[in-house]
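From the methods appendix. Each design record in this collection lists the tokenized structure first, followed by the designed amino acid sequence. Records were kept in a plain field format so they could be parsed without special tools. The example shown here is representative of the layout used throughout.

RECORD:
FOLD TOKENS (331 positions):
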């Protein structure tokens, strides 16, 4: 009503001109509808609280970004510039038209934008963040993140249903298994995943808004562990976390959507069986070696290639009795 329809309908403004289009796939339908209602009537400061998005310390929920080439072209033709909607989406760091890295407004630039009407050409050099030089490989990774962000976006003309987060997590697990990052006992090999994600994204941690990528070095795997572990939360993970993990695990968005649809159409028990069938086999083998053949837990664990502590867990689950034996040095 305030724009008299000049910028489109309420949903067109929300999904086509704000970051909500990128967020919506990771927010349940009822909460998304409530958020849209509040955005249509206000007050706006309630929206961020209702989103319940885990912070990634961007300094701004959606940092202002602009392509230098786009700005130059606009100034040459119209003596002004604009903030392009697609450049403001979380995860978009490259201009698809010019294949160049976007400039990102600094904390000073955002502070000024809160009180003044600013366009990209009005910001001084000090109001843009300093972007480090990136290798060719890092630029390819960053471009992939941009493509994923655009592919996962919901617009008013291409509405998409939110992801089922349980199905999404199972899809990630099955893909990790294909990469060889699921142990023979069905558990995630977080050390391998952490090393692989860090090798892929180490350079990108220096970019504003992507600092959270360094969390994969933590013992628990940081954002990687948080997204892939089985747990429920009243808070949603920032969509950029999902985007970067999906871009790392899958070769393309089309491949991911194909896998996700297949997993969503499979019964939950059968898709979990894909990950646990090896665990059942190893548990049965442990039961035979320890329970029937009298082998020590340490030796049986070594025989099947798992840690003794994990072997004890499986034996207790099966109710297999075992005896503690004195350890002989050198054996």
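DESIGN:
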């Amino acid at each position: 009503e305030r724009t008299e329809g000049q910028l489109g309908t309420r949903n067109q403004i929300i999904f086509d001109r704000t970051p909500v289009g990128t967020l919506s796939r990771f927010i349940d339908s009822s909460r998304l509808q409530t958020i849209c209602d509040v955005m249509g009537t206000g007050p706006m400061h309630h929206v961020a609280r209702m989103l319940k998005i885990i912070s990634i310390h961007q300094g701004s929920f959606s940092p202002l970004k602009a392509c230098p080439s786009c700005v130059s072209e606009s100034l040459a033709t119209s003596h002004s510039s604009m903030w392009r909607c697609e450049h403001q989406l979380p995860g978009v760091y490259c201009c698809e038209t010019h294949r160049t890295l976007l400039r990102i407004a600094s904390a000073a630039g955002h502070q000024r934008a809160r009180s003044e009407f600013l366009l990209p050409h009005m910001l001084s050099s000090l109001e843009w963040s300093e972007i480090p030089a990136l290798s060719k490989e890092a630029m390819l990774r960053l471009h992939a993140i941009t493509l994923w962000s655009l592919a996962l976006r919901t617009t008013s003309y291409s509405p998409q249903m939110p992801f089922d987060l349980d199905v999404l997590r199972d899809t990630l697990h099955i893909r990790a298994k294909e990469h060889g990052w699921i142990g023979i006992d069905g558990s995630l090999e977080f050390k391998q995943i952490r090393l692989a994600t860090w090798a892929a994204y180490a350079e990108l941690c220096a970019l504003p808004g992507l600092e959270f990528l360094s969390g994969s070095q933590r013992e628990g795997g940081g954002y990687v562990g948080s997204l892939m572990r089985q747990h429920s939360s009243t808070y949603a993970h920032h969509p950029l976390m999902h985007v970067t993990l999906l871009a790392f695990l899958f070769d393309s968005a089309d491949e991911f959507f194909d896998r996700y649809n297949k997993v969503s159409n499979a019964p939950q028990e059968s898709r979990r069986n894909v990950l646990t069938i090896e665990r059942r086999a190893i548990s049965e083998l442990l039961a035979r070696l320890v329970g029937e053949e009298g082998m020590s837990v340490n030796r049986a664990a070594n025989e099947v290639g798992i840690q003794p502590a994990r072997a004890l867990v499986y034996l207790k689950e099966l109710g297999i009795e075992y005896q503690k034996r004195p350890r002989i040095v050198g054996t």
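APPENDIX NOTE: Strands lie at 65-66, 94-95, 100-101, 103-104.
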